[in-house]
Design a protein that fits this description.
This protein has 627 residues and is α/β, with parallel strands linked by helices. The chain contains 26 helices and five strands. Strands 3-2-1-4-5 form a five-stranded parallel β-sheet, sandwiched between helices.
């Protein structure tokens, strides 16, 4: 058993650096083929943030609508405040990328500056956010589809699972393949939203209101004042548009060299595009005096008002539907990298740190798909069931990251560090308040699950870490072991009859050990006794030079008698190394393997469970053309 207890390699990090050096690139030219360019990174890692413009402005409008038309006038100021926070977050994560080029985002920052426990809270919050993002994105995209084709509504769960399988399959081929596949949908969506904003700015009024016609207004009546609490709730609700901003910082190792510099460019481009779209949409909301209505999204009304109820309108709706469904790709780009860092720090099973030949953390991708699938089935494919849980985790991660960067600047003290620390401190205050407000206002709607899940995930991290620590102590990792020595070797070979396989097994055993013993399990029943006696006669005639030991089993079990014999050998020969060599046939065709009796697996399981013996499994391959 190989147990890897290695820590993350932090060589080449440049804490406090404004720009990461070009030197120290870790990826080879061959590996770069499976890594991201800045443009591909924008497509692979920004879908969550880009798609949030479909529900971010709507979240603001629905809250302010409670104050009537007067409240709607505050849409632009609230959006500008969110855009300011977005600028703070982009500037912060740009520095996080420079300081932590191995990725990890909030987790890496908290681990260095705020302690291990705080870093685990950040990691748990990010894991929750990533998993929920997959479920919310898929259900939202399918909801747009079923809105256009109501006859599919009853099959929405199966459609959600189909989309999930499709996105997972693309990501299992590699992050570059997923980026190429999603580049066109991202470009179409961003282009259509920007075109809608530009065209709308030249309109004196809405071209069409057909999409909202006949739908009940969600605007409140009789309100004349807007309180601070309402504005705070609108700000917190609109901050859902900021989810996904951290994904680039979490997945820096996925970029081509110089990875950190490319990731910084991607982060800035993401922030600029997202900010322009959010502000542009809020300007159109005020310009067209839009009122929220039931059953029609704000984005659909804006497309109707700017373009009219024509082909361009349906293009925006289609692009929105596709991008919402594919926004789950952000989680596939960020979460497996985060899980690999946690695995390297011994907080998750080490299998999550393994990479496939296409630079894919396949175990993380598959785990994400399975958990998201459970959420989709649990929610019945309903977006409204999942949305109250969404974005809380990312606010916690934002706040921890911002606080950690304040300590980072205080410890490094580069030029103008006070300004940078103040900027991060202000961002921590805003995101912290947002996290509290969102949790409080949505606690009874399902946010209590996040409050409960966060500490449980942290406890799971701690349990895994303690287990690896105990294994490391038993293996004396980090110490120079004693010099190896040769001990007497006893090899035990389970047999059930005479064959070419038996001959090869004894030949291999005699080459491995000083003494070889063959064992066979017999049953004292009258119908089995003749077979056992025939084996003993044939063994005496064969004379292989190896003693055959009969092991009686009244219960017809196979593994326990062999394991008991091996334990007795180890007790009577304390200075000997006992090895069990298990001979097995391996047919050429897969379907023929199902015909095997699996005796070797049964014996191996019993030996592994009940003894400390070495297990060797001899494979006798049967050629396809064998007669």
């Amino acid at each position: 058993m190989a147990v890897h207890m290695g820590k993350p390699n932090t060589a080449g990090q440049a804490p406090g650096a404004e720009e990461p050096p070009d030197t120290g690139a870790k990826a080879s030219s061959g590996g770069d083929r499976h890594r991201l360019t800045a443009l591909q990174g924008l497509a692979a890692l920004s879908l969550d943030a880009m798609a949030s413009v479909a529900y971010g402005p709507e979240s603001i409008v629905l809250v302010l609508a409670a104050a009537g038309a007067h409240g709607m006038g505050f849409t632009l100021p609230v959006t500008l405040a969110i855009a300011a926070l977005l600028a703070v977050l982009v500037a912060s994560y740009r520095q996080v990328i420079a300081a932590f080029p191995d990725g990890g985002g909030s987790y890496a920052v908290a681990k260095r500056h705020l302690g291990r426990r705080t870093s685990l809270v950040a990691a748990a919050s990010l894991i929750l956010d990533y998993v929920l993002n997959v479920a919310v994105s898929v259900t939202a995209g399918v909801a747009a589809l079923t809105s256009a084709f109501p006859e599919l509504y009853g099959e929405r769960v199966w459609i959600c699972l189909g989309v999930l399988v499709l996105v997972t399959a693309v990501n299992l081929r590699g992050v570059v393949d997923s980026a190429k596949a999603f580049l066109v949908p991202t470009a179409v969506f961003v282009g259509s939203i920007l075109a809608m904003v530009v065209v709308g700015l030249f309109r004196d009024g809405p071209v069409s209101t057909a999409s909202a016609a006949g739908h009940a207004s969600a605007l409140g009546e009789g309100a004349t004042t807007v309180g601070a609490l309402l504005l705070l709730k609108a700000f917190a609700a609109g901050c859902s548009a900021l989810t996904g901003v951290e994904a680039v910082a979490n997945a820096v190792p996925s970029f081509r060299a110089p990875a950190a510099r490319r990731a910084q460019r991607t982060e800035v481009a993401l922030g600029a595009l997202l900010g322009v779209m959010l502000i542009g949409l809020s300007v159109l909301i005020g310009r067209f005096h839009l009122q929220p209505v039931e059953g029609v999204t704000v984005l659909a009304q804006l497309a109707d008002a700017s373009f009219g109820h024509n082909l361009a309108f349906y293009l925006v709706q289609f692009a929105t539907m596709v991008l919402l469904a594919l926004a789950a790709n952000t989680s596939y780009g960020g979460l497996p990298v985060l899980m690999s860092l946690l695995a390297r720090d011994n907080h998750l099973p080490h299998v999550f740190a393994l990479k496939a030949d296409r630079q894919v953390h396949r175990h993380g991708v598959v785990w994400l798909a399975l958990v998201s699938g459970v959420l989709l089935v649990f929610s019945g494919g309903d977006t409204n069931t999942l949305v109250p849980l969404f974005a809380i985790g990312v606010f916690v991660g934002f706040t921890i990251c911002q606080v950690g960067m304040v300590w980072h600047w205080y410890g490094q003290r580069p030029e103008a560090w006070q300004t940078k620390a103040a900027l991060n401190g202000f961002g921590a205050l805003l995101t912290g308040v947002s996290a509290i407000v969102v949790t409080a206002t949505r606690f009874t709607e399902g946010a209590w699950l996040i409050v409960l899940a966060l500490p449980l995930i942290v406890l799971a991290f701690e349990k895994v870490h303690r287990a690896y620590t105990e294994i490391g102590e038993r293996l004396e990792l980090g110490r120079i072991p004693q010099a190896p020595r040769r001990s007497r070797s006893l090899v035990v070979v389970p047999v059930s009859g005479l064959s070419r396989l038996t001959c090869q097994a004894l030949t291999a055993a005699r080459s491995l050990g000083d003494e070889v013993l063959a064992v066979t399990v017999v049953h004292p029943s009258p119908e089995d006794r003749p077979t056992a006696e025939a084996l003993l006669r044939d063994w005496e005639l064969w004379k292989p030079g190896v003693r055959l030991v009969e092991l009686s089993s009244d219960t017809r079990s196979l593994g326990r008698p062999v394991a008991g014999f091996v334990r007795e050998l180890a007790r009577t020969h304390p200075d000997a190394q006992v090895t069990v060599l298990i001979p097995e046939t391996e047919p050429a065709r897969l379907w023929q393997r199902m015909l095997q009796n699996q005796r070797g697996s049964v014996v191996a399981h019993a030996i592994r469970r009940d003894t400390d013996a070495v297990i060797c499994r001899l494979r006798f391959r049967i050629a396809a053309d064998a007669r």
